[in-house]
Design a protein that fits this description.
Elements lengths: L4 H15 L5 E2 H8 L3 H14 L2 E5 L8 E5 L1 H13 L1
Antiparallel strand pairs: 1-3, 2-3
């Protein structure tokens, strides 16, 4: 079975975030680690954000340039737990 390039990049991004200790990562950091184009990775991150698998956040120009992404799975699990206990 062969994976598409898009699927390969998606899995790499998700695995990187799963292994990341603090959870936050930048597109540039992931792209440099796996030597993949930033533009393609940005498309993947956007789709995963829309689907709820990752959470994206943008920094103001005063803080630093760019954006960060983190795994959205933990956030959705905690919100489910909170709604069940309430």
């Amino acid at each position: 079975m062969r994976l598409t390039v898009y699927t390969d990049y998606t899995l790499r991004l998700l695995m990187y975030l799963a292994l990341k200790k603090d959870g936050l990562a930048t597109i540039a950091e992931i792209a440099a680690t796996y030597d993949i184009p930033r533009n393609h990775l940005m498309k993947v991150a956007r789709e995963l954000s829309i689907a709820g698998y990752v959470v994206t956040c943008h920094f103001s120009p005063r803080q630093r340039r760019g954006a960060a992404i983190e795994s959205g799975v933990e956030n959705s699990r905690s919100s489910v737990k909170n709604s069940e206990s309430a």
